[in-house]
Design a protein that fits this description.
18% strand; alpha+beta; four-stranded antiparallel β-sheet; binds zinc ion
Length: 497
């Protein structure tokens, strides 16, 4: 009997597959180390991935000849989007025109191990194997969705019992976040198995949110898109590294270590983020890997420093800065800009064009337009220096000139000039607008902006980036001044949500 071959739990060797390795950690944490029968492990898992639905049904009890109530059970959400095996309700009987099961449906999964030994496609062990079925191992073998991630895997993938059980156990180790019917995100960490175990035990376990259809991933904010939600998760995690009201000292220290805050040589942790739509089944739209968490955490610490003058709660301020890039559309919020800015930050590329777009196409068109929340410029100035190599002195020049330009444009009622600046398509057009501004607004253009260098650069920066940053400063100053005039006591700079 294949089912009676005992499985030795304990971490052992990792497989390098993030889904299976997550499951190995779950098994190791949940089961006592030692030998367990496969059936016992399956039962242990099924007990944890099914849940009572909170309503009852009737079954026909053949021994007493009576109808009896039972509590309905199902695979827990969102696992039910992957496992489509129905409960076994026994024979059916018809009484008074109604059909009843003859037992409460029992939820079972069978591994069906082969008698003929073969090599496991995941860990290469030789022994009894099972066909990996798509409904059990969603992130492993669905070839249409994951072909580019696991090019070697096909529908006929064979798994040994240990890998198959780990595949099932991984459902208990993921972090997930649902956005109603719009989106479902999953997050899975991966690195050395022992390290991942420590991460799960000391950090992710205590931070995991409990219950509900909204998910268990702790996030500072989230939306239908992958990158914004990933950034929301990371900001929340980062906030617990220096001090935490949810982690004990060991957990906090472990997190700081994982993020490279204390031990430089700590193994890098990789975060996999998967996005899709919850429907009858999960429809994956995106899968990304983020491996530069150390660098991101360093950036986050710079941001805290940069906004500490503005706010006594620097973390809350940084969250507010990123959260603001959304617009109300009817009853819901469109967060496309936030996702693009989050994408830029997570991939260490240029967020300024998206901030510019947000200011000129969203904020200005609001009923009472408001500038960016306080701290925004500080956060992105820091980003410009750290990631894009901007010179601090030149940034200050741009900030000062942009501020004068925007304030003067507001005084002269010349918003159009700012749009001309924003729309400049080449250095000539850019200089033409500055020239116009000089005459119409009586502003003085700083020397540093007038020297265009080889490769159409200004002070070493591509001209279009200079234009974009200037357009952001100017419009922000314009909106701030306008806001101060309409409600001098209050200044409409804070988010209104
Ligand atoms: Zn295996």
């Amino acid at each position: 009997m294949a089912g009676s071959v005992p499985i030795h739990t304990g971490l052992g060797r990792g497989t390098g597959n993030f889904w299976i390795d997550t499951g190995l950690v779950v098994l190791d944490q949940g089961l006592e180390e030692g030998e367990h029968s496969i059936d016992a492990i399956v039962q242990w898992l099924v007990d944890r991935i099914t849940q009572k639905r909170g309503n009852t049904g009737l079954y026909y009890d053949q021994s007493t000849g009576q109808l009896r109530e039972y509590e309905k059970t199902n695979w827990a959400y969102p696992i039910n989007l992957f496992i489509k095996v129905a409960g076994d309700a026994g024979e059916k009987v018809t009484i008074g025109g109604e059909t009843y099961p003859t037992q409460p449906p029992t939820f079972q999964l069978k591994l069906d191990l082969s008698k003929k030994p073969a090599f496991c496609d995941i860990c290469s062990e030789h022994g009894p194997v099972t066909d990996a079925k798509m409904w059990m191992f969603p992130f492993l073998v669905d070839p249409s969705k994951f072909a580019n991630f696991y090019p070697g895997l096909r529908r006929g993938t064979k798994l040994c019992a240990r890998c198959a059980l780990a595949g099932l156990a991984a459902y208990l180790g993921w972090l997930w976040k649902a956005q109603g019917r719009d989106a479902l995100h999953f997050f899975i960490f991966h690195s050395d198995l022992e390290e991942m175990k420590r991460l799960h035990r000391s950090v992710l376990g205590p931070l995991r949110a409990q219950g509900g259809r909204g998910g268990n991933a702790p996030v500072a904010f989230s939306g239908p898109y992958l990158h914004e939600t990933t950034l929301g998760l990371l900001l929340e995690l980062f906030s617990h590294a220096r001090s935490s009201d949810m982690l004990d000292e060991e957990g906090r220290a472990a997190l700081a270590e994982f993020l490279g805050a204390t031990v430089v040589t700590s193994l890098p942790v990789t975060l996999y983020a998967i996005s899709g739509k919850p429907a009858q089944a999960f429809n994956m739209t995106d899968l990304r890997e983020f491996s530069r968490l150390h660098d991101l955490f360093q950036l986050y610490e710079r941001w805290l420093e940069a906004v500490s003058e503005v706010d006594k709660n620097p973390h809350g301020r940084v969250v507010t800065v990123f959260r603001q890039f959304q617009a109300q559309q009817g009853k819901s919020w469109e967060t496309l800009w936030r996702d693009r800015i989050a994408w830029s930050v997570l991939s260490f590329s240029d967020p300024f064009p998206f901030i510019e777009q947000f200011l000129y196409e969203v904020r200005v068109r609001e009923e009472s337009p408001r500038p960016l929340v306080r701290g925004t410029l500080e956060v992105f100035e820091q980003y410009g220096q750290e990631v894009m190599g901007m010179d601090e002195q030149f940034q200050r020049t741009l900030a000062g000139f942009g501020h004068n330009l925007g304030t003067a444009a507001q005084e002269h009622n010349e918003m159009g000039l700012l749009y001309e600046l924003r729309n400049a398509k080449n250095p000539e057009a850019f200089y033409r607008v500055l020239n116009d501004a000089q005459f119409r607004l009586e502003t003085t253009i700083p020397e540093a902006l007038l020297r265009i260098e080889k490769g159409e650069r200004i002070a070493g920066v591509p001209w279009v980036r200079v234009k974009t940053i200037l357009a952001i400063y100017a419009m922000n100053a314009f909106l701030r001044k306008a806001g101060n005039q309409s409600s001098p006591s209050q200044g409409r700079e804070e988010g209104q949500e």
